[in-house]
Amino acid sequence: xxxxxxxxxxxxxxxxxxxxxxxxxxxxxxxxxxxxxxxxxxxxxxxxxxxxxxxxxxxxxxxxxxxxxxxxxxxxxxxxxxxxxxxxxxxxxxxxxxxxxxxxxxxxxxxxxxxxxxxxxxxxxxxxxxxxxxxxxxxxxxxxxxxxxxxxxxxxxxxxxxxxxxxxxxxxxxxxxxxxxxxxxxxxxxxxxxxxxxxxxxxx
Length: 204
Description:
Blueprint: E1 2-3, H1 9-12, E2 19-23, H2 28-38, E3 44-48, E4 64-67, E5 78-83, E6 90-93, E7 103-109, E8 117-123, H3 137-140, E9 152-158, H4 177-187, H5 192-195, E10 199-203
Parallel strand pairs: 2-3, 8-9, 9-10
Antiparallel strand pairs: 1-10, 3-5, 4-5, 6-7, 7-8
């Protein structure tokens, strides 16, 4: 897991949130293992490619509240669990921003935050619709999201895309053009240095 620009103290000191992210490969065993590990150690558990049965029924855990997308008649592939004892902040589903099987958004807020933080959970996978010309999730949904330049954003994802912005070891970029374009157009303000405190990327 790599973190971009997380050493910016103005952002990091705003709110201390413990986040666990994992691609579960559609396994209930992996999901339960994540929840067991996260208990009393993690505030937000963010999962991609989770196990889901009919009517979007998945596992539950007594220590966490599940936040699902409101997508009907399909199996969602992203899910967020918030610890019930996480009293220092509140999380609210933002289905008004995005409502997709492969992407969800929540807002994080408390009395220390002047403006809520938007957290995006993204599984950048191909569409199940064979006729969809915009195959990957970033092109299908993220590219449509409109944000103002002052918005603080956390992107937590399984990108299936590689770039040195979120992994300094990457020399050959793959499937990243749409994401870079979205960041440049939707987030980056006129003064480059200012945006460094507004964006954090967590990648598998």
